[in-house]
Amino acid sequence: VVYFHGGGWVMGGINPVDSPLRALANRSGAVICSLGYRLAPETPFPGPLEDVLAAMSRLGDRAPSLGVDHERIVVYFHGDSAGGNL
Asked: Is the pTM value of this prediction over 0.90?
């Protein structure tokens, strides 16, 4: 599961969702990655999208170190507010 936080593009982060995502990972056995991205107004669009694409590339490269079997990868994207748009 790859999760992108909400915040209307201008606020938010991964800390507020850390606890519920950890609980979900523990219950499901899934690997859950919560990714941050640069915020407006300092970083206008498409900056956040570029951050997400770069992070996804790095996640694929680091899958073995995260305990993820490349043969069993199924990606489910989830987010709220701005994160849902990404």
From this structure: no
